[in-house]
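Title: Prediction job returns without error message
Component: structure pipeline
Severity: low
Priority: P3
Assignee: unassigned

Description:
Job completed but the reporter wants confirmation the result is attached to the right record. Sequence as submitted:
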Amino acid sequence: MRPLRIGVIGSGEAAPAEAGLAHAVGAALARAGAIVVCGGMGGVMRAAADGASSEGGTVVGILPGSDAGAAAPGVTIPIPTGLGEARNVIVVRASEAVVAIAGEWGTLSEAAFSRKFGVPVIGLATSLPEGVVDETAGDAADAAARALELAEAKRERRQRREVNG
């Protein structure tokens, strides 16, 4: 069985409290054996990558530019796309659930794509509009746990559909 893939989306520039939350989410996901998917750059993305890598986790960074060397240090697998913000679609498609931390327009676009594609969104310290987030978590551990649960349930539903035709 392949590991669950959980996206962590959020601000490219994060306040210390937001970065702390992202680091804790990344670490919790890595401890659970999930692959962390993010935009691979700064702010929330960097903090989540650092948290996951500090626990020996794998982090896939879907980069907006063409230079793999621009990835945050905690990114294990940088994927340069050259797509700019259009890479947000790939971040979501590569994830089975996402945790949104803080965020601005780019995060809103990722959350909107998540809703469109049926990828569960867990909000943590975010001001995303009502209806964009499936659930709001009280802390990093809760956000990671719920993302894992929802991703697992989504995977099981997909597998049942494949078996039942």
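Comment from assignee: result matches the submitted record. Strands lie at 5-10, 35-38, 59-63, 77-80, 97-101, 121-124, 135-136.
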